[in-house]
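Pilot study result, target chain (79 residues):
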Amino acid sequence: MYQRNYKEEYRRYHSSPQAIKERGKRNQARKIMRKKYGNKAIKGKDIHHKNGNPNDNSLKNLAIVSINYNRGRARFNNK
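Predicted structure:
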């Protein structure tokens, strides 16, 4: 069975400046929704960016959705 090497994964991707910036934006979106709706409303859920732009953390662009919905969708639309 394959075991993930978390240290190597962090070194290769998660520690890059772009990944740190993106993670900060995701955390900021979660904080915004937690402040508006409370911890119970977002526990076990994901914060979805409706327009697909994770840098746009305006309230009209954020929604609380199930993990399956948010992570199961294609990230980019083919136009």
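One observation from the pilot: The beta strands are 45-49, 62-66. A full batch analysis is planned for the follow-on phase.
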